[in-house]
Amino acid sequence: MITKIELDKLADKYENEYFINSDPVKIPHMFKTKEDIEIAGFISSLIAYGSRKVFIKKLDQLFEIAQNEPLNFILNFEKGILGDFNYRFGKTEDFDNIFKVMKGLYSKDGGLEDLFKYAFDTVGTLKNPNFFKIITDYFYSRVQNGAGQGFYFMIPNPDNGGAMKRMNMFLRWMVRKPPVDFGIWKCIPQSELLIPLDVHVARVSREMGLLTRNSNDFKAVIELTENLKKYNPDDPVRYDFATFGYGVNNSTK
Fold it and tell me: Would you call 18 helix, strand, or coil by DSSP?
C-alpha cells in the first residue's frame, strides 16, 4: 500500500493553480461572486463526463449563451434561451428542466448552499445516500413536463448505488479551501467529503492498494474515503490530487 509520505508528495505537487487550467474547475474560477461560482460549479459538474476537452468546450459554449452571468442567467431563465444546445445524453429539454428547477431554487428557496445544508443537517453525513436523495428529490419533484434520460443521468438517483462522482466533485470544489477549490461553503465539514470516484481514480486507487472493491459504486467510494481518512482524517479528499498525479506519473513511465 502506498505510504502517507508518497500520497502527500503527490498531493502537494498537483494541488496548485496550474492544475486549474486543464480541469473543469477552471469554469467556476472564471467568476468572483459566491452565487456565480456555485452556479457555474454545479452546471459544470453536470456535464463533466466523457472527453474532458470536449465537455470543457461545451461548457464554454453554454456560458457564452449565459453571457458569463450565471446567477442572472438562472434567475431569468426561459425556455428557448438555449437554442439547440445539448451534450451527449443531455438534450435541450433536459437542460431546460434543470435550469427551470434552479430558477425556482434561487428565486424562492435560497439557492444551492441552502439545499445542500438542509440535506446535511437532516442526514448528518454524506456516507448515507439519503443525503444525495434529498438533493435529487428536490429536482425530481419539480420537473413540470416530464424528464428525459439526460436529466436523470445528470441528476442521478442515489438509490441506484452509483458513485455520485460529479456531485462529490462539486462538493469538493465548494467546501475545500483554495487554491484549486473555493472554500465558500461552511455548511459541510471538509472531513465529511467523499472522494469523487470515476474509472481512473478507481484503477489508480487499486494500484495504490487503497481500494479492494471491484465495482466502481457508492460502496467503493466509502471504502476508498475511509482508507484515505487514515492518512488525513480532516481532509481525505485532498488525495484526489494524489490519484490524479499518480496516474500522470505512471502513464509517462
Answer: helix
DSSP state of 115: H
8 A C-beta contact, residue 41 and residue 50: no
Query: Phi first, then psi: what are they for 177, rounded to 5°?
Result: -80, 160
Show the cell assigned to 53. Answer: 476537452
**Contact, 165 vs 216, CB < 8 A?**
no
pLDDT of 104-148, one tens digit each?
999 999 999 999 999 999 999 999 999 999 999 999 999 977 789
DSSP string covering 204-243, please?
A: HHHHHTS---SS-SHHHHHHHHHHHHTT-TT-GGGGHHHH
Cell, residue 77: 431563465
Residue 167: CB atoms within 10 Å: 24
pTM score: 0.94
Phi, then psi, of 145 in degrees rounded to 5: -120, 30
pLDDT at 1 over 90: no
Whats the size of the chain, residue-wise?
Answer: 253
First vs last Cα of the chain: how many Å apart?
A: 20
Please give the backbone phi and psi of residue 184, each rounded to the nearest 5 degrees, phi first.
Answer: -95, -5
For the CA atoms of the chain, what is the radius of gyration? Answer: 18
